[in-house]
Amino acid sequence: MNVLELSEQEIGRRQSLQELRDMGIDPYPAAEYPTNAFSTDIKAEFTDDEPRREVCIAGRMMSRRIMGKAAFAELQDSKGRIQVYITRDDICPDENKDLYNKVFKKLLDIGDFIGVKGFVFRTQTGEISVHAQSLTLLSKSLKPLPIVKYKDGVAYDKFDDPELRYRQRYVDLVVNDGVKDTFMQRATVIRTIRRVLDDAGYTEVETPTLQTIAGGASARPFITHFNALDTDMYMRIATELYLKRLIVGGFEGVYEIGKNFRNEGMDRNHNPEFTCMELYVQYKDYNWMMSFTEKLLETVCIAVNGKPEREIDGNIVSFKAPYRRLPILDAIKEKTGYDLNGMDEAQIREVCKKLNMEIDDTMGKGKLIDEIFGEFCEGTFIQPTFITDYPVEMSPLTKMHRSKPGLTERFELMVNGKELANAYSELNDPIDQEERFKEQMRLADKGDDEAMIIDQDFLRALQYGMPPTSGIGIGIDRLVMLMTGKTYIQEVLFFPQMRPEKKAPKSSVQEWAAIGVPEEWVPVLNKCGYYLVSDIKDVNPQKLQMDVCGVNKKYKLGYDNPKVEVFAEWIEKSMHNS
């Protein structure tokens, strides 16, 4: 890396790195460091009358206070932080005191990983600490951490810019309290779901991520090319159709917790790559699935929060079963005053116009109803609510309702104004399913780019016979948002999708050469803030010389400084090239 691309702190850390190596100290040792304790456990288990406990701990050094021959450091391990007391003579029992005087005091930096062997004690101020008897450098940090500093009640160097936090999650996890806890809670959510499903006797399976047909949902897919087969493939938008094939194959119940990909927008509730749990169980219906789901979510909430309630956006949301069950057309009537029962597409279009909605000709009856519900109803359901009995036009994979013509046995679970789960009494009539697919293709012909494509192999599987089955998909990311009280999906994803980092435009070496600037001086000009040839056209030659030669001297580059006349020539030529 060019030294001019480094900050002064980074240069200083690299110099310390070299000094450590010159002393024979490996800044990145390969040997195992046998830790036997964690910070939080040490503090929780300590008693003043216990025998002296020897410990071996390791972690990042997050602060350091040097007081002559003694010092205090704060060590952060994977569970928390603990104070370490270090004295020169304890870690340097021989005549050579370099480990303390030079290495610890001068060559180590905040963020370095160190290992400490010693014993636990309580300081005079009452803080449980580790008295170091040996100290080992385990990994040298070359970039300074943005540690928050406070002066006169004002915080400095806070790492709170959302874009930086999401792009550099590894830094966010180190310096911001509570971030790691969120992801530990996410792990608890997934672990609890898996435990409940396993205990119920259902089998966790894996299905293809690359698929020849993007089926199982209404969404726009990502497309890639499979070189070995010389064919275009889709990143899956759902696992549904493959999991149903396994029900055809004889499994009692199957589930998958995995990634889906939908080439759609990003906002506080959506990420194009998201995690979903889908479950399918034979001989069940959507009524059974509602009961199973509310018990599952109650169990998850208790596992994460210790109780079945959670505060979300200022509301106390209760996941305690049972939940309200409300047909979608009744919900629309309740919120808008319009009863859509029995209406055809044209009549529903008229309702949309009366509601001052923006619609277009590509929307069929199902899409129109979905738009009405989304705009006027969805956001109003704060407590968990099963919205049930969707029109057949909205549900191409769902069994017709057993007693309500034109409707299907489907529910969506709404919580805090957003959809969390989608479930059906699954359609297992292959002839009906084929007609539903054909209707989807007619919508696609009208311009609906989210309509489903006919999956002929899935139809063939149904023709072999699928037992009565109920299935559900639960968005794991949204569930974690609810269980942790987060309002942005980016807060519960380790690495959410981001736009490429913006870089300042720079003139090429060839463009600089065109006005007479040698290649080695281009990074120096960039360091001074002159990225484009046009940036120097209005600069005074003496100032440009002072800036450039100052960097040459400061960073000890050793270049021969050009005379002011040379800078004047560069500036003159830059005017003609601009």
TrEMBL record:
Which SUPFAM superfamilies did the record assign?
A: Class II aaRS and biotin synthetases, Nucleic acid-binding proteins
Q: Report residues binding Mg(2+) 2.
A: 419
What InterPro entries is this protein classified in? Aa-tRNA-synt_II, aa-tRNA-synth_II, aa-tRNA-synth_II/BPL/LPL, Lys-tRNA-ligase_II, Lys-tRNA-ligase_II_N, Lys-tRNA-synth_II_C, NA-bd_OB-fold, NA-bd_OB_tRNA
Cite the binding residues for Mg(2+) 1: 412, 419
Q: What is its EC number?
A: 6.1.1.6
- Judging by the UniProt lineage, the source's domain of life is Bacteria
Alphabetically ordered keywords of this record: Aminoacyl-tRNA synthetase, ATP-binding, Cytoplasm, Ligase, Magnesium, Metal-binding, Nucleotide-binding, Protein biosynthesis
The chemistry this enzyme catalyses reads:
tRNA(Lys) + L-lysine + ATP = L-lysyl-tRNA(Lys) + AMP + diphosphate
One GO biological process term = lysyl-tRNA aminoacylation
**Cofactor(s) required for function per UniProt:** Mg(2+)
GO function term, MF aspect, one: lysine-tRNA ligase activity
Domain Aminoacyl-transfer RNA synthetases class-II family profile stretches: 183-500
Q: Name one GO cellular component term.
A: cytosol
Q: Which CDD domains match?
A: LysRS_core (cd00775), LysRS_N (cd04322)
Which compartments is it annotated to reside in? Cytoplasm
Co-factor binding comment: Binds 3 Mg(2+) ions per subunit.
Subunit architecture: Homodimer.
Please state which protein family the record places this protein in.
Belongs to the class-II aminoacyl-tRNA synthetase family.
Q: What is this protein called?
A: Lysine--tRNA ligase
